[in-house]
Design a protein that fits this description.
Elements lengths: L30 H13 L3 H14 L4 H13 L3 H14 L4 H13 L3 H14 L4 H13 L3 H14 L4 H13 L3 H14 L4 H13 L3 H14 L5 H12 L3 H14 L4 H13 L3 H13 L7
Length: 304
């Protein structure tokens, strides 16, 4: 079983979504007022309260597209993508020219793994607003999830051309280039993403993975440790540093890193498999077998 590096791919909720603002209108107890109340709750992360406020706005004005769109965002942030899509459907029915609603519905389809349907919405959002960098980045992400890395890179190129200070587009283009084995270019992209957003744990982790593939072990470890400092609750950089230690024959250090990764993500069967290899290499076959059994219980049969 070959070692696999963990590249971070933004999840659907990390894609760029758009809250639609409300124009001047009714009193606070009217449709627009309730929708504004919903926006306040949404931006504060108070999702149930936001949904209730948007429901109130829609009761007062069933054709208020912005309220349907923003209620969709609240559902999406709760991971309730089917309900989000229903809200976006209504937003688009009442405002077919809304690039934002198409983009957001694309994100919800992506959250369900329905990448072809997501791409249709992103295509429509691009048609409606061809100067919107974020939607090209979102479409590139969907292409990447389908394994169409060259098409993804083309969209990231467009996003960066429209917005040269767009860190997520650089980071995502780096991911696509890394998937194609273009690690020199990937490192350039991750480095630019870090310059634009020094707090990006993902960019550090992913640059570390490309440094690892180039055999630049010390630089890889520096990047993984930077990612750990920025996001100590994220398993991926511990897993990746564990792989580096395993490759170097430092099995105790590898086991330590894999153990932290398991604590942070106990449902990831693959990490148990890699820790089992490290236990076997260090001569502890009993604990290796325990990890293989744990992986099988999680639905993953480790290859010895």
């Amino acid at each position: 079983m070959g070692i696999r590096r963990r590249l971070f791919q933004a999840g659907a909720l990390a894609l760029f979504a758009t809250i639609l603002a409300l124009g001047a209108g009714c009193l606070w107890d009217g449709a627009v007022g309730r929708a504004r109340e919903g926006n306040t709750h949404l931006m504060a992360g108070e999702l149930d309260e936001a949904i209730a406020a948007y429901d109130g706005a829609i009761e007062r004005d069933p054709e208020l597209s912005e309220a349907h769109n923003n209620r969709g965002l609240a559902y999406a942030h709760k991971g309730e993508f089917a309900l989000a899509i229903e809200s976006y459907d209504l937003a688009i029915r009442f405002d077919p020219e809304s690039a934002a609603a198409h983009n957001n519905r694309g994100n919800a389809f992506a959250g369900q793994g329905e990448y072809d349907r997501a791409l249709w919405d992103y295509h429509e959002a691009v048609r409606l607003d061809p100067q919107w960098a974020q939607v090209y980045s979102n479409r590139g992400w969907a292409y990447a999830r389908k394994g169409e890395y060259q098409r993804a890179i083309e969209d990231y190129d467009t996003a960066i051309g429209l917005d040269p200070d767009f860190p997520q587009a650089y980071s995502n283009r780096g991911n696509a280039r890394a998937r194609l084995g273009e690690h020199d270019q990937a490192i350039e992209d991750f480095s630019q993403a870090i310059r634009l957003n020094p707090e990006s744990a993902a960019a550090y982790n992913n640059r570390g993975a490309s440094h690892t593939e180039r055999g630049e072990v010390d630089r890889a470890i520096e990047d993984y440790e930077a990612a750990m400092r920025l996001d100590p609750a994220w398993a991926a950089p511990f897993y990746n540093r564990g792989n580096v230690h395993h490759d170097q024959g430092a099995y105790d250090q590898a086991i330590s890193d894999y153990s932290v990764a398991i604590i942070l993500d106990p449902g990831d069967a693959e990490i148990y498999c890699y820790r089992s290899r490290a236990f076997s290499a260090s001569g502890d076959e009993r604990r290796a077998e325990e990890d293989r059994s744990a992986a099988v219980a999680l639905g993953h049969d480790c290859k010895r």
